[in-house]
Amino acid sequence: MVISTPYRVIYGDTDQMGIVYYANYLRLFELGRNEYMRAVGLTYREVEERGLMLPVTHAACKYRKSARYDDLVHVQTRITSIRGARVHFAYEIRNEAGELLVEGSTEHASVDRSGRVVRLTPELVKALEPEQT
After folding, report:
1. How many domains, in total, are found in the chain?
2. pTM
3. Catalytic residue among 15, 70, 71, 112
4. 42 by DSSP, 3-state: which?
5. Which of 15, 22, 107, 125, by CA, is between 20 and 30 Å from 81?
6. Which domain, by its residues, includes 42?
7. CATH classification at residue 11
8. What are the pLDDT digits (tens) for 102-125?
């Protein structure tokens, strides 16, 4: 399943050259992740209320083309794998014309409130499981 989240670039996202500052794409990944969770019927808050946290343990980003102030972009988010205590998200950020601007991924560990790594619960795995094709 791929969830597409629209986002209008604000002035504060840009650098002195008028393009989106590179680190802000990680914020857009977070936006996509949050909306993905909502689309499957969960929120991060609900997951945390169940005693699980999903901190980022790895992030990767490949920049292909710049977005600029006031551009409408679409953050496309999907899960590529869920295993044990890890979940991997993949992202593509595209402009209105559908051109690929940025692609990336994040890996998350499932930890309890004390920070100890724990397996993802069966309910969470079932809710997040990528569709089989």
Report:
1. 1
2. 0.91
3. 15
4. coil
5. 22
6. 3-123
7. 3.10.129.10
8. 999 999 999 999 999 999 988 889
